[in-house]
Amino acid sequence: MNRLRIFVMVMAGLLTTASVARGETWQATLTGYEESPPVSTVAGGEFRAVVQSGTADHFHYTLTYFGLQGTVTQAHIHVGQPGVNGSIIIWLCQTSTNTDPTGLSPQCPPSGTVEGRITAANVIAGSTASQQLNAMDFTGAIAAIRAGAAYANVHTSPLSTGGEVRGQIRIVGK
Question: What is the tens place of the pLDDT at every residue in 73-128?
Fold first, then answer.
């Protein structure tokens, strides 16, 4: 009986450790119809991020986009519910014409995939004072994302300077 109890306890501990190590996964499917106002485009993309359990100070992301009608100028995470434009809080990639004020985001490729690591140093103050988001407020940025009040988008020029593709960020796995 004691061996069975020990076996069950060890297995429960291993299962708990495995789920804790996995962390949390966020995802957004980017389309033109998520933009506000909607954009008719064949372009698309995906934002995916992983927050490892036990690491409350950073997350890793991958942003992939394709078929854009314009030249990529920048990509961000904004705070805003579906259908509403909001403040930029995190730059995902930059170009020589539109630079990340923190200088930390990678260069945007013309199409394809960009990856990075986000920390408090990447978080900029929201441009809308009423949103009450401050620079380096990593906890506030994470709270907005977890609440479903954040979206990723890719801006292009000359047609879609406000964004060509966008997707609301959702938790898809824990």
Answer: 999 999 999 999 999 999 999 999 999 999 999 999 999 999 999 999 999 987 66
In angstroms, what is the C-alpha Rg of the chain?
A: 19
Considering only CA atoms, which of 48, 92, 60 is closest in space to residue 74?
Answer: 92
Residue type (1 letter), 44: G
Three-class SS state of 43: coil
- Class for the domain spanning 23-173: mainly beta
Tokens of 164: 């060509």
SS (H, E, C) 45-109: EEEEEEECCCCCCCEEEEEEEECCCCEEEEEEEEECCCCCCCEEEEEEEECCCCCCCCCCCCECC
What pTM value is reported for the model? 0.85
Q: Which residues pair with 153 in a beta bridge?
A: 76, 166
| The CA-based dihedral angle spanning residues 96, 78, 48, 70, taken in that order and rounded to the nearest 10 degrees | -40
